[in-house]
């Protein structure tokens, strides 16, 4: 793909269906990704109200990111948003049949494969790239995210758990479509065994299994890791998905320490306020 083409908006060549079980509901779910016109963005439809994929529409962040409006909810959207963002899809209508997105294998890879099978087409309008001119920061307790100006998107994540199988992990990734597909999209979500009972009591993880999550005991994982640092890579995947909710693309170097969906979304909302306040937004 030429540089000129890569700087234009893109959408899917045709619709594509993805089916599976919802991580939290345990119900059968289906997502149909439809092509969309320029400047549509990512818009969720099918459960009632149409809801744009924007951080200002996030209503829940408990073990996933949920969009909502006027009683309509679209749950666990982060892995799909990461796949769309990572593969450069700017515009799509996401039709949801069921209470949430399919969990699939707990990573973004099945979504990536579906998008690649459909293919993409280049549209006529240029992408809008948000460009930082000063640092933006968000924190909560002992977690924080910092973005500083850059001409590229580069993310470093620091993961730290007081757990013998986790400890301290650090991963760094510079965003590109090929790199996302190979290095980030396959990284799966994870849960510590001790957390499962509490999640079930909160009506979460009812569809969870060792087929769609890495379960971590005190002395072992439920399956072989796909990467030595798969856990911190998955946290980068989540950031890519949650930051896609700013409504465009951004160049910045990001350092995230122990952040999760709640802080990611607060940070995305802060970025939206920052850019709305007159910071640089330029055609790519």
Write up what this structure looks like.
- This protein has 284 residues and is α+β, with helices and mostly antiparallel strands.
- Helix content is 24%, strand content 35%.
- The strands form 5 sheets. Strands 11, 12, 13, 14, 15, 18 and 19 form a 7-stranded mixed beta sheet that branches. Strands 2-3-9-4-5 form a 5-stranded mixed beta sheet, with helices on one face.
- The chain is globular, with a radius of gyration of 18 Å.
- The two termini are 15 Å apart.
Write the layout of secondary structure elements.
Layout lengths: L2 H4 L1 E5 L3 E6 L6 E7 L7 E4 L5 E2 L5 E3 L5 E4 L2 E3 L3 H9 L5 E6 L11 H10 L1 E7 L1 E4 L4 E5 L2 E7 L3 E9 L5 E8 L2 H8 L5 E3 L3 H6 L12 E3 L13 H14 L5 E9 L3 H16 L3 E4 L1
Parallel strand pairs: 4-9, 11-18, 14-18, 16-17
Antiparallel strand pairs: 1-10, 2-3, 3-9, 4-5, 6-7, 7-8, 11-19, 12-13, 13-18, 14-15
Helix pairs in contact: 2-3, 2-6, 6-7
Fraction of residues in helix: 10-25%
Give me the count of strands: 19
Task: Indicate the proportion of strand residues.
Answer: 25-35%
Structural class of the helices, strands and pairings?
alpha+beta
State the separation between the terminal residues, measured CA to CA: 15 Å
Shape: globular
What is the residue-averaged pLDDT?
92
Largest sheet report: 7 strands, mixed
Number of helices: 7
Q: Gyration radius, to the nearest Å?
A: 18 Å
Elements, N to C (H/E): HEEEEEEEEHEHEEEEEEHEHEHEHE
Low-pLDDT runs of 5+ residues are 1-5, 279-284
């Amino acid at each position: 793909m030429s540089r000129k083409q890569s700087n234009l908006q893109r959408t899917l060549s045709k619709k594509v269906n993805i089916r599976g079980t919802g991580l939290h509901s345990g119900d059968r779910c289906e997502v149909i990704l439809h092509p969309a016109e320029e400047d549509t963005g990512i818009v969720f439809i099918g459960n009632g109200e149409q809801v744009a994929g924007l951080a200002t529409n996030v209503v829940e962040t408990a073990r996933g990111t949920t969009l909502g409006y006027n009683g309509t909810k679209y749950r666990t959207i982060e892995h799909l948003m990461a796949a769309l963002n990572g593969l450069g899809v700017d515009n799509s209508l996401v039709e949801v049949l069921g209470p949430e997105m399919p969990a699939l294998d707990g990573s973004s890879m099945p979504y990536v494969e579906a998008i690649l099978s459909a293919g993409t087409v280049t549209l006529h309008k240029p992408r809008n790239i948000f460009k930082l001119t000063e640092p933006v920061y968000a924190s909560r307790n002992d977690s924080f995210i910092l973005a500083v100006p850059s001409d590229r998107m580069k993310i470093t994540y620091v993961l730290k758990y007081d757990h013998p199988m986790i400890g301290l992990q650090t991963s760094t990734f510079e965003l590109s479509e090929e790199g996302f597909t190979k290095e980030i999209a396959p990284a799966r979500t994870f849960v510590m065994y001790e957390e499962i009972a509490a999640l079930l009591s909160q009506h979460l993880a009812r569809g969870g299994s060792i087929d769609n999550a890495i379960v971590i005991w005190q002395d072992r994982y439920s399956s072989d890791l796909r990467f030595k640092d798969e856990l911190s890579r998955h946290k980068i995947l989540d950031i890519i998905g949650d930051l896609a909710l700013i409504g465009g693309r951004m160049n910045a170097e990001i350092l995230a320490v122990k952040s999760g969906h709640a802080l990611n979304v607060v940070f995305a909302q802060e970025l939206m306020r920052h850019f709305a306040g007159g910071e640089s937004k330029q055609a790519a």
